[in-house]
Amino acid sequence: MTFNRTLSICTALWALSALPASAHVTLERAEAPRGQSYKAVLKIPHGCSGSPTQAVRVAMPEGFIGAKPMPKAGWTIKTVRGPYAQSYAYYHGPIAEGVKEIEWSGGDLPDDYYDEFVAAGFLARELDPGSKLYFKVVQACAKGEERWVEVPEPGVDPHDLKAPAAVLRIAANSEEGHEAGHGHGHSDAHGVDSHEHGSSHEHAGAKAADAAGGVATIGALAVESAWTRATAEGAKVGAGYLTIRNTGSQPDTLVSVETSVAGRGEIHDMTMTDGVMRMRRLADGIAIPAGGSIELKPGGMHLMFMDLKERLVEGGTVTVKLTFKSGATGEVALPVRSLGSSGEGGHHDNHDHDHDTGHDHH
Ligand SMILES: [Cu+2]
Q: Can you name the CATH fold of 2-171?
């Protein structure tokens, strides 16, 4: 998988530059809602093995937009601007570029002193609640430097990192309405769901025979290996995975997914940008070449069930209706696997766990 490969390469590079240190560079406020301004206060606890800090460089994580450095007496500011990975909704319209890096230099912060470096910006509405932004910080000292750039490989305990980047957890925005944007999160995640009506068994019934294999034939499209994962109490989203083979001679596109267990279905992809894992909605669906196939799996493309109306319970099934551009439409029953399940046949996509728990901010 390209995804894992990218991760391993990055990890290897970081490992070379990592220096052990007792106190890490952290953010004063480690959790903040998307769709609001955010003041990133980076706390620099010490120098480099006793040597004073003379410059601090911070990379703005993707999704922290419209960033501005706060001036500091005795320090000179330099910024690097550039394009974002995507365009974001912003106060007066979309924004697609901005400050990507800030450097404070020319100062002299003794090892025994503590200081803070501040960048103000806006946490994009497009960020997923539960996702994490990593502020990578390089601290240049009179002698040597400290590189706070490690991002935990999914499945790895962040505490095991020697020089972790400062991390910000994105929370849901309590001011967002149910239908605002295509938001994943809701502040009432643990509340009682008033829409609840019936158990997942009701949805299982008719499709029980198909459920075991998670297979279906929809026109020229063969759906296989379909499954979903049990959800935690109070979770508002779930994810579905399957493989679709196009046995026909015409290309087709999976354009939508619907299910009675969720307010709506979406088609998502997961990507790694600047060391930050993000999900995005595939508004155009997923193309399936004639004779080709697509695989929706943990860590990659997936079906996303938004505003879950009920908890997905292991052993049950979730019936989804798939619609294709050609007009072909049909149902497939997704067996519900255990909460910790990462797929069939020994896939070890630990990062998926991160990803999906990210949806339902506990
Ligand atoms: Cu998703």
A: Immunoglobulin-like (2.60.40)
